[in-house]
Design brief:
heterotrimer; A: mainly alpha; 13 helices; 76% helix; 0% strand; globular; C: alpha+beta; seven-stranded mixed sheet; 23 strands
């Protein structure tokens, strides 16, 4: 298992190297001048040249790349052209927001999705099953931002139950240690701050979590249905084991395997969804920031953020694969 | 963004197929029989019928759009009548009223179907061609085995991994940034963003084919490996890929809307495109909700149609459901 | 427009403009607020902008969001008359400029201290001027010191040192400082009203700021310890979330009514409106035109800023048939500007007759105007042999500027008007920045386009010079007469001498018609019903000491 993990970690190195090259080439291939977007609509040509010189964008591409990698190896990710903020620091400020959002969305999707999928499978062909399945299909078919708009309309505008922007009420004098606001609230025992952060998470998380929810429902349903047909379940039934025991010991355990894969695969998709969700809800995470970085050609931010994301994404996949080993002993050999 | 899970996709970076043996699609009796059986099952499946009806309606509207309205799409002939506060509602001339830019709303909705169909089909075709190409190369070489085979498989899949690790929407956004704001850029962007799914899917199902009895048998009979790949494995592995393409049509339609939402799309703001209409109307939700709701539901229902049919096809093709 | 005198000893008769009547709502009686209510809890004023500040050292900033915050912390020698763009005394109680325009003597406000206790006096003033002038080479780029470069033209070192306008500063006594320039600069006083030229504590700068750092916008001073004389001090800047400002109880002027002010960033205008509705924020800037009336109906207050901007339809003479003056005039006659305004701009927006708003010096009421007359337009196009011509129409997407709130809608209605006179319009959209700007200003690959400008401070050159000061890709024409006239006007020592020249130039431009000025859109702010005392400013010189929020 350890060897497997190490081998996989080693495999990440060429992927990341390839990524850094491709990323660099791609980012520089973006037409348009970062200096122009920095200086705005009345920049003089001389000023643009001067700013490009100051950032070294006038150097040959290979040299720029080497400089970048050299700095990278020393842990220096550079700073944003637009704001001058250190890329690493900004990532540290914003990434927790997106993770908090994504985890909440995922939690919502799992907590609601797995039981629903299980129930649907147990009641295959009945009304409950049909309702769950159609609901999940509709969930996949609704654009994230349309759903977000509808949620906002119902829960914020009409009912007035939930806030629609920001991560926390700025009037609350909350202490932030980790920048995971809910966690911070618990750590500092500022319960109102934690509660407020949770309220702010509710709508964006539901909007973002709906598609994973739909997918998890369907995967769970299919997988449970399949396991229910397996011989060992029939054997267990014929042995007279109680339904609860069978569910726990045999069905769920075996059916969870594909569900875990799905959850892992959703990570990247969640980030795409986060771009939209964060924009709709004015949630200052990395999704909306990355989109701005593309629009303004903020090269250091783009390069840095995407490398971080790729590392994290690969790690998530590694964890998912390792989880396989825990859930399914048959896989451990590989 | 929504992407339906490819059933045979293994976890990233595990060469040699998926350790989970996740819902594999390994038909033991390949060929015509499978498809015929699948079609028979589809006809009895209400899900499939519902999906097919939606898609049929959608295609009919798209094809016969000019017969359904007397106005031109994106004409914005009444641009001067729309103000930041008011959009003329239903009237005798315009039974759904005007849209945000002063075109006939009904006309925009009808022609929007055409636009969505075009975007969806072209971009999925791009994604399918490129993705299936990469997947076939990787899967083929992987199945052939040997040093070179493994190496090629590995290289291609690492490339796909890299693509996967960049969120698809951001990939699409940056492609539009490179190619500029026009219809082609949007189609290519959405197509390219789909490449990894198809590539992994086809490779995965080809690799599992590699262990199927008929391949082993063909090998034992002394058939050349290349012929086995081209003549047997690809045709047999393509089934799930087609299913995925159907599902991806839904995704593509939604992604077009998402790009529009982020302000990237065609050059003409008045264009009859659902995503664009929804986004443009969003800030008028209070005064004219229909402008956002109608295209929003149009997108959702169309995407639902493709999802329903795709899911039903997947089930029908899955030999396990025949038990 | 007649000029209003500035209440100073300077003898300057107003850089321009009529003091416009403040818009009706949300203006509390200022006298009322002087009742010393500072003992009771004033609560929090929570305001949303569209982005985070870049830095809190205003000298290194050039964006509105940084200035919004630094205006609460810092003050300059010169401020603006409330509700106008006209210079007014602030930390300087008055000033006197010599006949040749080269020396200006400032009398300073007595009894002012910086937040760190450092005394504000003539030496502090000179320390600031000297700091700017002696910026290290690494900071002499437009991304760091845009305003100093564009107004003072050069530093003590560097290739442009010979062009530097600033010469020296001397502290005559504690409360009198004299600044000497190398050449006359009529906009000097007006320029000092920019937040970039705020007075900062020399002690705090010494200790915490390093102008020579790789990125001085990120230093300890710029993020944690900005030290000025303003009504608020920085409490904390929680990046990605909020800037918290605390009331400065020792403020030399009217002490702020609220205990603290918090600024957050919400990028999307619709999200800002929703946040106001749900009570999450007390107010926000850059209200979308479609939100104005609904918000007012729901009981929120909308404050309109007096427009200090212009939106125009540019025409690139490098492309046929736009090089033909007759075609340009035909396009101007084809435009129904009131319809364009009603279709895409907030209520209260006035049509533009020239490239400056009427409160700017040199505004000429008698320029040539081109009436809406589609038949005449068609006729002229036919005469010019351009009937049915295809014209590329460039417009930006994904942007809302105060002078251009909804470019898509503006494009859409103009297109329909131009098509009505028989022109074929080919829409070309690009993302605002950098794609669109690059195309318009970096290449000649564009036809007619939408663009504009919001003035920084009251100086005609800040509009006309910016647009037409030299040959450019944007307009594609070479008109040495115009360039020379602008350069001559810029070099005159006083605004009074400049005024007739600028009036002539405005008339000349409107005859030449390089583009059609469309409108001066009204930018709006919105507030909850409990907010009182927000004073708008056309140049966004908005200080929040009179703002109160009833909890």
């Amino acid at each position: 298992m350890l060897r497997f993990a190490l081998r996989r970690l080693a495999l990440m190195v060429p992927v990341l190297f390839g990524l850094s090259v491709l990323l660099f080439a791609w980012v520089r291939a973006l037409p348009g001048d970062p200096a122009r977007s920095l200086l705005g609509e009345r920049a003089t040509p001389e000023a643009i040249v001067a700013v490009n010189e100051a950032y070294g964008f006038d150097q040959p591409l290979l040299q720029q790349y080497l400089t970048y990698v050299k700095a990278l190896l020393q842990g220096d990710f550079g700073s944003s052209i637009q704001s001058g903020a250190d890329v690493l620091t900004t990532f540290g400020d914003r990434f927790p927001a997106t993770v908090e959002l994504a985890l909440t969305a995922m939690l919502f999707a799992i907590v609601v999705g797995v039981p629903l999928g299980y129930l649907a499978a147990r009641n295959q062909g009945r009304l409950l099953d049909t309702a769950v399945v159609s609901g999940s299909l509709l969930g996949v078919a609704t654009p994230v931002f349309f759903l977000a708009i509808l949620l906002k309309l119902v829960f914020a505008d009409w009912l007035g139950w939930l806030p629609t922007a920001l991560r926390q009420d700025p009037r609350i004098d909350a202490t932030h240690i980790t920048n995971f606001y809910v966690l911070d609230g618990f750590l500092t025992r500022e319960w109102d701050a934690a509660w407020d952060a949770m309220l702010h998470l509710a709508l964006p998380a539901i909007a973002l979590g709906t598609i994973p929810l739909a997918i998890i429902v369907r995967i769970t349903r299919a997988s449970v249905a399949e396991v229910l047909h397996e011989d060992y379940v029939r054997t267990a039934e014929s042995k007279g084991l109680s339904r609860g025991t069978i569910s726990r010991r045999h069905v769920l355990r075996n059916a969870l395997l594909p569900v875990v894969t799905t959850i892992g695969l959703q990570a990247g998709l969640l980030l795409s969804g986060a771009v939209l969700t964060e924009t709709v809800f004015g949630f200052n995470g990395i999704g909306s920031y990355l989109f701005q970085a593309i629009s303004t050609r903020d090269f250091p931010v783009l390069q840095g953020f995407i490398i971080f994301i790729a590392v994290i994404y690969s790690l998530i996949n590694l964890v998912v694969d390792l989880l396989y080993g825990v859930i399914d002993p048959r896989v451990r050999v590989s | 963004m929504s992407v339906t899970l490819p059933p045979a996709a293994g976890p990233v970076g595990t060469p040699g197929g998926d350790p989970a043996g996740a819902p594999g699609l390994v038909p033991d009796q390949p060929g015509v029989g499978l498809w015929r059986g699948a079609f028979r099952r589809l006809r009895r499946n209400p899900t499939a019928i519902a999906g097919a009806v939606i898609i049929l309606l959608f295609v009919l509207v798209a094809v016969f759009a000019p017969l359904l309205t007397s106005y031109q799409p994106g004409a914005a002939e009444d641009a001067g009548k729309v103000t930041p506060l008011t959009v003329p509602g239903p009237s005798e001339d315009h039974w759904l009223g005007l849209d945000r830019y002063g075109s006939d709303m009904w006309t925009q909705l009808v022609y929007g179907a055409r636009q969505s169909l075009l975007y969806g089909v072209v971009s999925t075709a791009i994604g399918l061609t490129l993705g299936a190409g990469l997947g076939a190369i990787a899967g083929g070489f992987g199945a052939l085995g040997g040093r070179v085979g493994g190496w090629v498989d590995n290289a291609v899949m690492r490339f796909v991994d890299i693509m996967l690790s960049v969120p698809s929407l951001l990939l699409a956004v940056s492609i539009v940034a490179v190619l500029g704001q026009n219809a082609y850029a949007v189609m290519i962007a959405i197509g390219v963003a789909q490449v990894p799914i198809f590539a992994r899917l086809l490779r995965g199902s080809m690799l599992s084919q590699g262990k199927a009895d008929y391949v082993l048998a063909a090998g034992a009979l002394g058939l050349r490996k290349r012929r086995i790949v081209a003549g047997h494995m690809v045709p047999n592995a393509i089934g799930p890929t087609i299913v995925q393409a159907t599902l991806n049509l839904a995704t593509a339609i939604i992604e077009v809307a998402a790009l529009s939402y982020l302000g990237l799309g065609e050059s003409d703001p008045a264009v009859a495109e659902w995503g664009r209409m929804l986004v443009a109307a969003q800030e008028r939700f209070d005064s004219a909700a229909r402008l956002a709701l109608l295209p929003g539901f149009a997108i959702a229902i169309t995407a639902l149609g493709f999802t329903l049919l795709g899911e039903a096809m997947r089930e029908a093709l899955d030999p396990r459901t025949r038990r | 427009m007649r000029l209003a005198p500035i209440p100073t000893r300077s003898g300057l008769i107003g850089l321009a403009a009529t003091a416009l009547v403040l818009s009706g709502c949300a203006q509390s009686d200022r006298a009322e607020s002087e009742g010393g209510s500072s003992e009771q809890s004033g609560g929090t004023f929570l305001f949303a902008g569209s982005a985070e500040p870049v830095t809190l050292d205003p000298f290194f900033a050039s964006d509105g969001e940084s200035f919004r915050v630094s205006r609460q912390i810092f003050e300059g020698l010169v401020g603006t008359e409330p509700g106008t763009a006209d210079p007014a005394p602030l930390l300087a109680t008055g000033w006197e400029t010599s006949e040749d325009g080269l020396t200006t003597t400032f009398d300073l406000q007595e009894g002012v201290t910086f937040h760190d206790g450092t005394e504000f006096n003539a030496e502090a003033v000179c320390a600031n001027f000297e700091r700017w002038y002696n910026m290290p080479r690494s900071a002499q780029t437009e991304d760091l010191t845009y305003y100093y470069i564009s107004l003072f033209r050069g530093f003590a070192t560097g290739p442009d040192a010979g062009d530097a306008i600033y010469d020296s500063c001397s502290a005559d006594d504690d409360l009198t400082a004299t600044v000497t320039l190398n050449k006359p600069f009529a906009g000097f006083i007006a320029a000092l009203s920019l937040p970039a030229f705020s007075m900062q504590s020399p002690t705090a700068l010494d200790e915490y700021q390093d102008d020579a750092a790789g990125n001085p916008r990120n230093s300890e001073y710029s993020t944690e310890r900005p030290t000025g004389t303003g009504p608020f001090t920085l409490d904390s800047w929680d990046r990605g979330q909020q800037v918290t400002l605390a009331r400065n109880d020792d403020y030399w002027g009217d002490v702020a009514l609220v205990d603290e002010a918090v600024v957050v960033a919400i990028e999307d205008p619709t999200a800002r409106a929703d946040a106001l509705r749900s009570g999450e924020i007390d107010g926000y800037d850059l209200v979308g035109p479609a939100d104005v009336a609904p918000l007012e109906e729901e009981g929120f207050q909308v404050v309109e800023r007096d427009p200090f901007n212009v939106l125009y339809l540019g025409m690139n003479q490098a492309q046929e048939p736009l090089d033909d003056p007759m075609v340009r005039q035909a396009i101007a006659h084809a435009l129904n500007i009131p319809e364009i305004i009603s279709a895409s701009m907030p209520e209260g927006t006035v049509p533009a007759t020239q490239f400056v708003p009427d409160i700017v010096m040199g505004f000429n009421p008698d320029v040539t105007e081109y009436e809406y007359d589609p038949e005449l337009a068609e006729q002229m196009l036919a005469d010019a042999g351009a009937d049915g011509a295809t014209i590329e129409f460039n417009y930006p997407t994904g942007v809302s500027r105060p002078y251009m709130p909804q470019p898509e809608d503006t494009f859409n209605v103009i297109r329909s008007q131009l098509e009505a006179v028989g022109l074929q319009i080919e829409p070309v959209a690009d993302a605002w920045s950098p794609d669109y700007l690059e195309k318009i200003q970096g290449t000649d690959d564009h036809g007619i386009h939408l663009l504009g400008w919001t003035g920084d401070y009251n100086d005609t050159d800040n509009f006309l010079g910016v647009f037409f000061g030299a040959e450019s890709n944007e307009w594609g024409f070479d008109n040495p007469e115009l360039f020379d006239a602008l350069s001559e006007a810029r070099g005159l020592p006083t605004p009074e001498e400049q005024e007739p020249l600028y009036e002539d130039i405005n008339a000349e431009i409107m005859d030449y018609l390089p583009g059609v000025p469309l409108a001066h859109p009204v930018p709006s702010l919105a507030f909850g019903p409990d907010v009182d005392g927000y004073q708008q400013s056309p140049v966004q010189d908005e200080v929040w000491n009179a703002v109160s929020v009833q909890e």
